[in-house]
Amino acid sequence: MSKKKFYVTTPIYYVNDIPHIGHAYTSYAADTLARYKKYCGNDVFFLTGTDEHGQKVEDSAKLNGVTPTEYTNKISKKFIELTKTLNLTNNDFIRTSDLEHKQYVRKIWEKLFHKGDIYLGNYKGWYSIRDECFVAENEIIEDKYQNKVGPSGDKLKWVEEPSYFFKLSKWQDKLLELYKSNRDFIMPKTRYNEVVKFVEGGLNDLSISRNSFSWGINVPDNEEHIIYVWLDALFNYKSIFEKNNCIKDFWPADVHIVGKDILRFHSVYWPAFLMSAGYELPKTIYAHGWWTIEGKKMSKSLGNVVDPNQVIKKYGSDQIRYFLLKEIPFGEDGNYSEELLIKRINSDLANDLGNLFQRVLSMLSKYFDGVLPQLKYTNDTDKTLIGLPAKTLEDLHKHMELLQFNKSINSIWQIVKAANAYVDMEEPWKLNKENPKRLQTVMYLLVNSIYKITILLQPFLPNTSTNILTQLKQDTEISFSDIDNNLSSGIKLNKPIILFPKIVENNL
What we know:
This protein is α/β, with parallel strands linked by helices. The protein folds into 2 domains: 5-288, Rossmann fold, CATH 3.40.50.620; 338-507, Isoleucyl-tRNA Synthetase, Domain 1. The protein has 18 helices and 19 strands. Strands 1, 2, 3, 4, 10, 15 and 16 form a 7-stranded parallel sheet that branches. It has a 4-stranded antiparallel sheet with strand order 6-5-9-11, with helices on one face. Helix 11 crosses helix 12 (317-327). The protein is elongated and about 90 Å long. The chain starts with a strand and ends in a 37-residue tail after the last helix.
């Protein structure tokens, strides 16, 4: 029987600047979901990449004294390198400068044009270069210098130029019908409500070309115009299969994971484009929140942009992944600080999981020369511990279907805490002298519990899970369906390694 297909994406990251911790957050979330689905037995396709066209990129290239191609090659390379630093399992990395993508977008344009959903007109209005979008009058505000700025705070530019338009207004009713018939199309619920309210307020036709810059995909039959960067970029999720030739297997996408700042493009423009083209729609658009840095908005001007490469080099990829996914409910805003990160590493990873692993395998080495003993008999307390992994897996499935990463981690941590409490209650150091037969059962159940915990932790702590499973002399990737299987008695394990060195804060 063929495996169920699952397709998850990050947004493709805009290359006007180098990666920051927000990019890492989105990528970790998508990768964790991809790994989870793989361990559930699905055939997974996970895509990430870079968005490389538009005026903002052209301007950034000029500022750096290089061509747009040179500039995008340099920045895109940093994002490709980041996938390795983050230990991502993405199947492919798309660049919108790829020939296959550009050819596909031109085909899409022609399809929408011949259908009558694109027409030539004139645009007058305010444009945000940072956001690569036109801003409606009711969204414009004035900053303290009385400059007109958009919702993101970007200073706006007045634009008057010929433009092709997409008949977005034509799809207003169909979009509302989509939202109301499929409440899971936009998640979480708070974002769903925002989008519905926006669309109910009325949709204007969308300007989808520019002729004031040259870096982008030319409009077919009118080379003076460049295709709107968002019409170009969004179709990466489908154009990738021009190269991979597996569109029938994986489309539609199961989940697009995006930041809340680009939700409108994904939840309004994207489905409208797809409906116009006659394609199936993605199943879910999930918009996560933003990270503030020490309670302040992350920005270059404040000098508080966090480089994921630096923090990972300092603390480790698993540690950063754990903190970002654990610290806040996915979808809400959160605060990043090194102080909070260190506390989480020391308390959860070093004290809870690391200490459990260290002391259990140390006692196994001390009392049984590292050989896993036989399970002799069990009492009610033992049976409670034995039953936790299967129950936790049920909870894990419930939480992950809603992308509740923090609740998923919390459910696994109940076994970690239970196993630590079991050590304290059973006191193996006393059993070694007073009840050696009981000690065999206790030590077997503790090592086996670590094994089960590790199976469940694989999507969330992949490097750590590999280290533990190697230490336990097991396969380094184990399906969730094996959660009921147990370790074999008689295997000889090595002395434990230190999983998470404790961080001394005054040494920072």
